[in-house]
Write the structure tokens for this entry.
Amino acid sequence: VKPVVNVAEGRFPNPPHTPWLHMTIGALVMGILQALTWRLSWWPFVPVGYIFAGTWTFVSQAWFSLMIGWLAKLMILRFGGAAMFQRTRGVFIGLIFGEAMAAAFWMVVNLLLATMGIDYFPVRFLPS
């Protein structure tokens, strides 16, 4: 009934893992991946992949979008070089910003509909 008191009095066993150790190992891996990304132009692994690798969102929903973005970057750099990459950066930032704005807009619409008690059904474009 009182979990904070029970923990303070030692009634729960210690967890089988050490959270600070795991966070430290994760931070070290992220730092190494970022340093390799900054120093080696051929290095294929970036920290965002490490973050998403073990999550349900990446495995089931976001992998295709990230793969398309990676493929677009690869093709632009391969066929257009760094100059084309710099010129097209604004387009891709605009796509990301537009996606975030559309998600925010529909979140507000859903909140308003739910607040007013109106029944609505989301349209699903991709299977989940």
